[in-house]
Amino acid sequence: MKLSMIIKNLFMFLLLFIMPLYISTAESASKSEKEQAKEQAKQQEKELKAKNEAIEYYNQGKTNLLNGQKDQALSNYSKAIELYPELSDAYYFRGYIYTDMGKYDEAIADFNKTIELTPDYGDAYSRRGNIYYNKNEYEKSIADFNKAIEITPANKENYINRGYAYSNSQKYDEAIADFSKASELDPASATAYQGLGYTYAKKKDYDNAIANYTKSIAMDPLAAKSYEFRAALYDNKGDDVNALADYSKAIELNPKGGEAYLSRAMIYYVKEDFQKAWEDASKAKELGTDIDQALFDEFKSAAGK
Predict the structure, then answer these.
(1) SS3 state at 135
(2) What b/e sequence results for 277-296 when a residue is b if at least 16 CB atoms lie within 10 Å of its CB, and e otherwise?
């Protein structure tokens, strides 16, 4: 009986000793959780504020870009990225400006980031594909346009751009298929027929090339380059009459196109109309066209100057 009482008293002692400790530990844990929740809330509030501020810089950048203020836009997009590095649109538009500035490496880096953050950002693939095209990296260009077409299959520009990349890679059948698809998507697309003309010319299929440039001109009669390209094809076929007519039309539409003056000068020279050849060559040089000095001297001598 005494032993039973001793055990009972010991149990009560331990219970009285442990309970305050347990309560204190529970209160401490509860306090720690509240502090963590409070800190987490503060951090979320800070991040939200940064995100909202970043969006303000981003929107200001868009306004700058619309107003042609590219330096200010670049600065605002960079501030937006600094405040909120997850804003994929800011990288995209900064990449757009870098492209316009000819800073291709910086632009590619920004488009890479855009795609990393938003994998289905079709325009980022298109823009990066155009840069690779300008760098003559046609395989990379084609790969990006493949992805852009996968994301936005109804965008004719991606087919046109991939068509030129295929054409310059001497993949003429693929190029013709792409330009044809673009004209299917937009039957009034002059640029699609320009692409077909360009590709058939590279294949040395001059009749088909002329036919497609003719279609392009019918859809866009003010496109000086279409007349200039068709003129070169007529000249290649020995059709001086149509070649001169097209070069003259190209010059009428774009009086600052020095290459058209030089090409027309060559035809006049062959036809022994040396005065007109000299006038066109002089105009081409005046416009900054690169003319071999020996050739220019020949024009001058033939005209008796």
Answers:
(1) coil
(2) bbbbbbbbbeeebebeeeeb
Q: Which two tokens stand for residue 80?
A: 């937006």
Q: Which of 268, 260, 231 is nearest to 246 (CA)?
A: 231
By CB neighbour count within 10 A (0-12 exposed, 13-18 middle, 19+ buried), where does 256 fall? exposed
User: What tokens were used for 121?
Assistant: 């950002």
Q: What is the pLDDT along the chain (305 residues), one digit of tens a residue?
A: 454 555 555 445 444 454 555 555 555 556 676 667 666 666 666 677 878 898 999 999 999 999 999 999 999 999 999 999 999 999 999 999 999 999 999 999 999 999 999 999 999 999 999 999 999 999 999 999 999 999 999 999 999 999 999 999 999 999 999 999 999 999 999 999 999 999 999 999 999 999 999 999 999 999 999 999 999 999 999 999 999 999 999 999 999 999 999 999 999 999 999 999 999 999 999 999 999 999 999 999 999 98
**Is 0.85 topped by the overall pTM?**
no
As separate numbers, helices (DSSP H) first and strands (DSSP E) second, the chain gives 15, 0
Query: Angle at the Cα of 205 (from 201 to 211), degrees rounded to 5?
Result: 80
Dihedral sign for Cα atoms in the order 59, 61, 65, 66: positive
Q: Domains of the chain, with CATH numbers?
A: 223-305 (1.25.40.10)
d(CA 158, CA 104): 19
